Amino acid sequence: MDAALIDRERTAERLLAASAKHSFDPDTELDWEAPFEEGKWFWPPELVSLYDTPLWHRMPLEQQIELSRHEVASLCSIGVWFETILMQLLLRHTYDQEPTSAHVAYALTEIADECRHSKMFARAVTKMGTPTYRPSRLDHTLGRAMKTVSTTPGSFTGTLLAEEILDWMQRLTFPDERVQPFIAGVARIHVVEESRHIRYAREELRRQMRTAPRWEIALTRLSGGQAARVIARALISPQVYASVGLDPAEAVAAARNSPHRREVLRQSAKRLMDFFDEVGMFHGPAERLWRASGLLG
Questions:
Q1: If we measure between CA atoms, which residue out of 173, 202, 195, 167 comes closest to residue 185?
Q2: Cα Dmax for the chain
């Protein structure tokens, strides 16, 4: 076994050990029967898409909090969509791998984590009493195409895009005492378990970007830029605005033109964009796609 494969196995063994010690069952870890607390946010207000816009300042506090509830429901609903794609990408990755390896064992462990997360997100949407916010028909179709044709480095690029942006936001959420304790609990579980997934994906993508053929790396750069655009725009469904009594077109424009919102998205992706730059993701014509996503500073 060469040095790269030995290193990959050691990483997987460490992640398997961490999984054995720090994994959660949301069905028993969270208090699903506890009522939501009056006056508490469902998401830190600074992370709500309309925060500090003129439209935000015209909204009463109750409507702002209600928007935070629907935006978290959108993130949970879209999270199920993301996780479904990621599970399929991981299974495709394991198809040609040695089934007795620690690398494959950890991939299967991660899939089990993602199954629990998807159930947790879906149940949280039900508890919040909101609609299930789905991606647009275009984004749903693009997601289907990605999970079907993605290369291995492309799969791990998409995985990191979906996981690290939400991870940054949730790390601000679970210690915030202004936030509903139930939502903080959901965020805490996801952060702890996703930290392992991020480590696994980063190290594998780094290996892939060193060894994949040129055509595959070029395709990964382009497909990754397109995935970044889709993920950035899919996080918050425009329908959340209608649900709280706002004009969706006006609210979408307010969020799109908000300097604060643009900065939140850039900050949420900064650590990841630095990593992508390090492994050579932004070379050539793909850089324009990445910049169009709003995630690259």
A1: 173
A2: 63
Say if residues 128 and 196 touch (Cβ distance below 8 Å). no
Considering the four listed CATH numbers 1.10.357.10, 3.40.1190.20, 1.10.340.30, 1.10.620.20, the one that applies to the domain covering 3-10+40-292 is 1.10.620.20
Cα–Cα dist 41/54, whole Å: 20
How far, in Å, CA of 171 to CA of 188, rounded? 8
pLDDT digits (tens, 9 = 90+) for 259-296: 999 999 999 999 999 999 999 999 888 888 898 888 88
Domain ranges of the chain: 3-10+40-292
Percent of the chain with pLDDT over 90: 81
- Which residue has 């040609």 as its token pair? 96
Provide the residue type at 294 as one letter. G
The two three-digit tokens of residue 269, written as one number: 């992706």
Residues 181 and 37: beta-carbon distance below 8 Å: yes
Q: What count of residues does the chain have? A: 297
Separation CA 137–CA 100 (nearest Å): 39
C-alpha to C-alpha distance for 134 and 215, rounded to whole angstroms: 33
Whole-number Cα distances in Å, 282 to 106, 148, 220, 225: 29, 23, 10, 9
Q: How far apart are CA 151 and CA 89, in angstroms?
A: 9
CA atoms of 170 and 163, how far apart (whole Å): 10
Q: How far is CA 30 from the centre of its chain?
A: 21
Summarize the confidence of residues 109-131 as an average pLDDT.
97
